[in-house]
Amino acid sequence: MRTPARPPRRHGVLRRKVSLQLRPSVRGLAPYSAPEEGREGKLRLDFNENTIGCSPAVLRAMRRITREQLTLYPEYQASLRRLARTFGVRPEEMLLTNGVDDALRLLMETFVEPGSSVLVPEPTFSMYRFFAEAAGARVEAVRYDDGMRFPLEAALKALRSAPRIFFIANPNNPTGTLLGHDALTRILDAAPRTLVLIDEAYFEFAGVTALPWIRKRANLVVSRTFSKAAGLAALRLGALFAQAGLADAMRRAFTPYPVNSAALVAAEAAMADGKFLHDYVRQVKKSRELLARGLEGLGAQVFPSGGNFVLADFGSGGGRLVRRLAKRGILLRDRAADFGRDGFVRITAGTPAQTRTLLRAIEEEW
Ligand SMILES: Cc1ncc(COP(=O)(O)O)c(C=O)c1O
Question: Above 50 in pLDDT, residue 138?
Answer without folding.
Answer: yes
